[in-house]
What does this fold into?
Amino acid sequence: MNIEQRIAALEAELEEIKKLRGIPGPRGPAGPIEAAVANAKASVVDAELRVQARVNATYEKFAADVKALREEVADLKKFMDERIQNAVDSHTIQALRDYHLLDENHAPAHWKK
It folds into this structure.
C-alpha cells in the first residue's frame, strides 16, 4: 500500500467519523436511582442556599433603604412642624399687634411701665 492509498483511506475514515459526530454513542447501564435522587437533592439544597443568600442580601439593602427613608421623613416632619409653629406664632403676634393688644416690644399694651 503506497502513501497515496493510505492518505485516501485516512480521508475516507475521517469523513465517516465526521458523519458519526452528531450520533450519540452507546450508553452504559443505568446507575442506582438512590444516587440520582441524592444528587438531585444536593443540587436543590445548593440552589436553595444560593437563592436564600441573594434574598438575604437584597432584604438587608431594602431594610437599610427603608430606614434611611424613614429617617428622612422624620427630619422633614420635624422641619415642617417647626415652620408651621413659627408661622402660627408670627401670625398670632401680628394679629395681637394689629388689635393693639401688644406693643412694638411684644408686651401687653395695657401694661404700664
The chain is about 75% helix and 0% strand. The mean pLDDT is 87. The radius of gyration is 44 Å. Helices lie at 3-20, 33-98.
